[in-house]
Write a structure and sequence with these properties.
The chain is of the alpha+beta class and 577 residues long. It is 35% helix and 24% strand.
Length: 577
Amino acid sequence: QPIGLVLGAMIDLPVFSVLSCLCWSEEESEKILAEQEIPTEIAVVFLRTAEGRLAGEEIPSLLDELSDFGDCVRIQPDPRKPGSEGIEASDFLLVGVIPTDTREAFKGLFERPYISRVSYGFSKDREEIRRILESQGAETRPMIEPKPEELLTQAKSFMLEREMSNQDNPIEEMELPATDEQKNSITAPKGFRSSGVHAGIKKKRRDVSILVSDYPCVCAGRFTQNRFLSPSVRISKEHLALGDIRAVVSNSGNANAATGRRGMEDAKRMTEIAAENLSLKPEQMLVCSTGLIGAFLPMDKIEAGIREASQSLASGEDDRMIEAIMTTDVRRKSSVRRFTIEEREVTIGGIAKGAGMIHPNMATMHAYITTDARIAHEALDAALGEAVDQSFNALSVDGDTSTSDCVLMFANGQAENEEITLDHPAYPSFKSQLKQVCIDLARQMARDGEGANHLVRIVCQGAATMEEALEIGRTLATSLLVKTAIFGRDANWGRIIAAIGRTNATFDPDQVKVWIADVLLFSDGMATEYDEARVEAGMAEEEVEIRVDLGAGEAEMTVYTCDLSYDYVRINAEYHT
């Protein structure tokens, strides 16, 4: 059975099951059970190398890097053995011991172009592992092990027979099954349907999608401020101004940007094909493209994909569209809010893509938001603008602004509430719920930043104005020195105050305070006597907060970013433009 199929069925495979299916030498058992000065855990990794890559050349270098984290106890097949240099595409099993606080960095080792699929499992329960190893009886002689795919089948049987599915941490896989929210997000509001298909623009993932409202909509949007506007942005802005939007068609894997007159014709053709298949007019369609810049769209594939997508529209299967808008993303991103307006349940649902080229001003990603609220266009546009300013425009991964991305929002009124206007009592509530959806999506994008290990929340308080608070937040979010310090878990407050000092914000340096992970590091113009161990522990968390108090006013703003790792450089060095 192909390992990919087994992995898909074995997301809950426990580490205990894997270890139980292996034969262990005495030396290997000692490595696994050895007490360490720092907390460690057992890591199990299944990976598949891409076709055409010589694993015998690639994997050894990965193992060398792994030695910086911990100890590789077992890899099979072992490409380091003599005669393994010519091993081509293959499945590998790796078992290692790593420090507990390096799990995210360890997982980052396997985000490489020559690895097409990877799954992880982790366990800290040494007592259970000891029981498993002792029950087997360690052998000092070499043993012939099953192939990884055979091992997976054994592990599956082992788990089913012993009903151990809840006794250990599940394997974490890059392409985990969609959650209920992801499946029912953009179509959670009444009257919307979505689809996503694989048209062949990307090698494996879905890449063409459609979102449609079955009822007339009011629609609002925010678009990239990059002056090299893509054809999709130009056409969408033109159609949006006409005020009769019902659907959006999108593709990923190709941005259709910097493609001249042909690019405009192709984007227009996308709206025509989608409209024809949805029984709409082309001007009722919006169009979005994301991916590589400078390449023409493969229109034969896209036309076929649009036709297929139009035939598979449904509610409650939104994970298909989420996948179809992703490029370098690892995680699906969705958010849903349900609330009541005048005893009517109203729903706002959103999905987004974006992991690189994330920086204000809107749009540096794609986000699609729907609601069944009945709301005037003026109120919808104002609410979206404010929500975007406090979420997506307060987000930065790498300081680069894309050429083709946008935030689009559709409202079809199927909640049948009284129409919300700017002066309606329900407008503040609607605006607040929309802002929470946007902030949630922005946080997910920051967490999924290319090569990121940490979501970084930057809070600037005590600023003279909101604009100055935002300036401080953005400056810190785009500082390479600050972002690399977070990656290195270095509480380098000097880099933070240096970045603050080059802004135009109003403040007295002696009044500025700086915290990292709730530990005050800088006050009264100098370092405090802080607990380094406490800061280091806080910086090891998945989410790290930097808080700055300027002592100059009452304004406060939160900006989201991520750390900057080696993998960001690798991903973007290898990503064709």
